[in-house]
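Hi support team,

I'm filing this because I wasn't sure whether my run with calcium ion finished correctly. The job status page said complete, but I'd like someone to confirm that the output block is well-formed before I use it downstream. Pasting the exact inputs I used:
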Amino acid sequence: MSDTVEKSKLVMFKDGDKFKLAYRVALQFIDPYPANWQVYVDAANGDVLKSFNAVNNDGPTTGSGYGVLGDSKTLNTYLSAGYYYLFDTTKPMNGVIETYTAQNGSSLPGAYSVDSNNAWTSSSQGADVDANYYAGKVYDYYLNTHGRNSFDNAGASISSTVHYSYKYNNAFWNGSQMVYGDGDGVQFRPLSGALDVVAHELTHAVTERTAGLNYSYQSGALNESMSDVFGYFLDPNDWLMGEDVYTPGTAGDGLRSLSNPKLYGQPDNMSGYVNTSSDNGGVHTNSGIPNKAAYNTITAIGKAKAEKIYYRALTRYMTPTTNFSGARAALLSATADLYGSTSAEYTAVKTAWTNVGVN
Ligand SMILES: [Ca+2]
Ligand SMILES: [Ca+2]
Ligand SMILES: [Ca+2]
Ligand SMILES: [Zn+2]
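And here is everything the job wrote out:
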């Protein structure tokens, strides 16, 4: 033991859900094998709470796990002091993509999601896995397709909290992070399990930092529609929103439909516009009208052109007070920039909006 270096320090140790006062004892030696043993000893009774050999392997690593739907995923994680974190440091951003758990409470951001062996395989971890994995997908989409580095275009961290509240049937962007409920198992599964839901919420953050569409009446319905439309751009295999987590007992349905808004009680034309003061002036109802215009556009010119037009309109032409007619004008301006005002694309965007009664 003559070459052993021994250090100890009083620290807080996380033992399950509890924090305990502990001595962290570090034992470092080279013979008979290189070691950096970290031993946590309960300060109250001397019990060894945890011990592991941390030979300088703290840092970014790769783990694996199952998403909400039970699908296998490779995860960018981070090892620190014997615990693995959903902490993706592989993106060219200033921050990281990180996930917390509210542990069914309501304080935000909550505690870091951690795992002891980097196999995120317990069924309750599906929400944590997908929140981080899909946030990474949305980050990649905005960077690779639009050259936008995170929601603020300055590489800000993307933070998510899962297991928010109890059986909570919703997800939201709270102005600084994403928050997901577990759902009650009947109306929803854990909401981070749907890429289009994650894209929808993160797009609210993009909208907030760009057009800044006021969240009421027509500008609010446009704000909702932009989130649904980018939800489609991220998950273009169907026209439904949230189908992967909505009503686990019923196949083939969704929260909303871009191709057929009426299927879920939304108007698909100005003739059906709902005048109401509830839901911030019907933002989740009247979004059906611009959603249908987006469907008309995408089916006419294809996703690749449509997403360029929508991103340009959202980030350069729309303002906090843009209404449906202003959205048509913003999209036409963006189309003219990209394809010219005598292009087939320009005519297609015009027709898309005329066909939902917006001039
Ligand atoms: Ca594990
Ligand atoms: Ca979908
Ligand atoms: Ca369903
Ligand atoms: Zn929304």
